[in-house]
């Protein structure tokens, strides 16, 4: 497995693979890898000849300096895990390489969807995501890129950006990987104390119970979300939002909508956890 922090070395390797006719899958990450990330690499492995993973804690997508400073850096372990997963190249640029100087002001923005939900709570977050994903796409020039459905809104932002800016890259979503009790795997789970970890699965359980209520014909979406928020707060979370939205544009769902996604973000101690479940109410699972 090749490990490089250099843009030129990355480009050279990509050029060689292209000359050999190899297809390339790309998995962008911020490192501190867990089985959720590795599932994306495995997916890439199945779909393309070569898999490139990037590890870059992108400062422009953090709205809070303390959160950025605390973000775990575990490069050595990450590279070992990627090697075991048969990743072909790990790109590990530093901040200077990606944002060459303080005058780097160009931003890619996907208005509308970027201001809802996560975007409303974390100002500028999705502009940071769209910008870094664009830069990484320009460097890696993959045939396909794989993103987790755990970050449902991020996946939508990236899909819209790729469509509207004519990137010739297939965007593939991959299901959320969970611990046995349902908690979505996340680098931020490491911030939880033992006591908090024991109640963290309430987030997924609460989303699941909303799905059940919807399947049973419940239509008071606002009341359902409100009572779910109470459940979370009573369990020790501080709910940021829990919302029942339409899958195609993330606007509030109405009784006529069948393709629905329930999205939540909630603080548990130092960790801000997010999760979602997408359902088609027309289809019995
Ligand atoms: P991050 O390192 O948090 O920026 O995540 C990198 C990629 O991994 C993103 O596409 C995430 O959606 C995806 N990801 C993170 N956690 C999970 C998970 N539990 N299951 C599947 N994909 C995930």
From TrEMBL:
GO cellular component, one term: cytosol
The keyword Transport belongs to this UniProt entry's keyword annotation: no
Enzyme class: ligase
Catalytic activity, EC: 6.3.2.1
Recorded catalytic activity of this chain's protein: (R)-pantoate + beta-alanine + ATP = (R)-pantothenate + AMP + diphosphate + H(+)
Residues the entry annotates as binding ATP: 30-37, 148-151, 185-188
Residue numbers binding (R)-pantoate: 61, 154
Family according to the record: Belongs to the pantothenate synthetase family.
Protein name as annotated: Pantothenate synthetase
Organism: uncultured Thiotrichaceae bacterium
Gene that produces this protein: panC
